[in-house]
Amino acid sequence: MASLLEQALATIVSTFQEYSQLSGNPLCQAKFKELLEKELPTWTPTTLRECEYKQFIGALDANKDCQVDFVEYVRLLACLCVYCHESFKDSPLKPSCSQ
Question: Which residues span the membrane (predicted)?
Answer without folding.
Answer: none
